[in-house]
Amino acid sequence: MQRAIVLAMIVATLAGCNRKLEAPAAMENSKYAGSWRAMSGDHDLMKITQEGGGFIVERGGRKRVAVVERGILKVTSEAGNVAALHVASSDHLLVADVEFERVTDKPRAIGTATGDRNWKRTLADMRAIATAWEARATDINSYTVSDVSGGPVGTEDLVAALAPTYIKSMPRDDAYGEPFLFTVGMNGNSYAIRSTGENREIDETPNGPFDDMAQDTVFTNGSFVSYPREAVPEKNHY
């Protein structure tokens, strides 16, 4: 009887040790799960779902199987296994020379490296579009595009109107991967350019600076009217 009790205690102890060894590995592997957005090209999305001891990777309408080997996610492909290298400090993934950043529902605060890079690029692109649009308006005495003199302007219509005469290559998307939104005022007397920000949704926009990167950035008639607070010193020079 006593021997049986001792054996039971040994089994329980070993089981507890195994759980302790498995837990860190499971936590380490879970870093790959979630949604990721490419930082270049078409900013396409990649979704990684943990299933059992492996993962399902969805990208471009295709699903692939992946497993973690020695801490590195290996994704199956026609060319063999492709390593997905995770950078813990910035929460980025490098897959076949394409860099991805994690997409979260929680807006990033101003001050992070990625957050700063995103709003700075977005403001710079908006300013470049505005400069080109204003130059065209000087020539034709109106901001009208494709006979739209009051309302939304299609991206491709604006590209056709501005490039390459007034801008060599017009940015279509902001740094969050969403299309810029363009509007012309009544009679073509004004214009507005909008970035929907970190949450990629049209929000009620306050005038002046904001701290929440989910807010929309808006440029109209020569200046930013809604913009990240850190851009205040030079908000019209990006």
Task: Describe this structure as you would to a colleague.
This protein is an alpha+beta fold. It has two domains: 29-103, Lipocalin (Beta Barrel); 113-234, 2-Layer Sandwich (Glycoprotein, Type 4 Pilin). Helix content is 27%, strand content 30%. It has an eight-stranded antiparallel beta barrel. A six-stranded mixed β-sheet has the order 9-10-11-13-14-12. Mean pLDDT is 78; it is low at 2-24, 106-114 and 233-238.
Notable features of this structure?
disordered N terminus, Glycoprotein, Type 4 Pilin, alpha+beta, Lipocalin
CATH architecture term of the largest domain? 2-Layer Sandwich
What topology, given as strand order, has the largest sheet?
1-2-3-4-5-6-7-8
In percent terms, what proportion of residues is strand? Answer: 25-35%
The CATH class assignment of the largest domain is Alpha Beta
**Computed Rg:** 25 Å
**Tell me about the biggest sheet?**
8 strands, antiparallel, barrel
**Please, how many domains?**
2
Produce a short descriptive summary:
Helix content is 27%, strand content 30%.
Topology:
Elements: H1 2-29, E1 34-38, E2 45-51, E3 54-59, E4 62-69, E5 72-75, E6 82-87, E7 92-95, E8 98-103, H2 113-140, E9 151-153, H3 155-162, E10 181-184, E11 191-195, E12 208-210, E13 217-220, E14 223-228
Parallel strand pairs: 12-14
Antiparallel strand pairs: 1-2, 1-8, 2-3, 3-4, 4-5, 5-6, 6-7, 7-8, 9-10, 10-11, 11-13, 13-14
